[in-house]
Amino acid sequence: MLRSLTTAATGMLAQQLNIDVISNNLANVNTTGYKKSRAEFQDLLSQTIKASGAQIFQGTVQPVGIQVGLGTKTSATVKEFSEGAFKSTGGKLDMAIEGDGFFQVLMDDGSIGYTRDGSLKMDANGQLTTSDGFIIQPQMSIPSDALDITITPDGKISYRTAGNSDQTELGSLTLAKFANPAGLSSIGKNLYVETAASGKATEGTPGQEGFGTLQQGFIEGSNVQVVEELINLIQAERAFEANSKLIKSSDEILRILNRMS
Question: What is the pTM of this model?
């Protein structure tokens, strides 16, 4: 059996996963706060036919060896947390994080989830929530008669009521950040949860100690660049095609050998 058959097969499998990652990026090109993924690969063990440094005769060693690689595999799919483009909405509850940080939300099981999606809503109790109803932390309630809701870059929320020209401060939003955000686990609904790889969340005030600031009336778009993804797709397709041709060539060699036997 030719090594090239199984080696080329690993290349096709790797590029198939690469195309899966690219397609998911393109599918989420308009998803608020979405962060693109990138597939990374590593070579498999090589078969050593002749080892480098092996002794040939007394006093002489093999200067170079013979190793044949056995293919490739996917080593990781890495989330890239570069900032997406901001889009002005004018919405009083829409917020974009300019810089590092995540909004914190209370999950159904009582744990904390994290998101960059700042297209917030208000429930029947005046609490800030995500589009799926997860309550933003720290929790606070905006009165039903509140007018002119203002959110400052450092997270302070204030409002004015009818007949009152003074602003009433309601509370302050905080952000969370991680030593290794690429280690976060995506669970859908624009949410992430911490893992042992991401480390524990550090909570802080927007604009201080490396945390980003909040921009009211904006939302952060996806950081997917369509042209870049299409180029990656072409490269993945050509690599898949080249590996498939290797399998066909190997099959032809085996067919010739079988005729000779």
Answer: 0.87
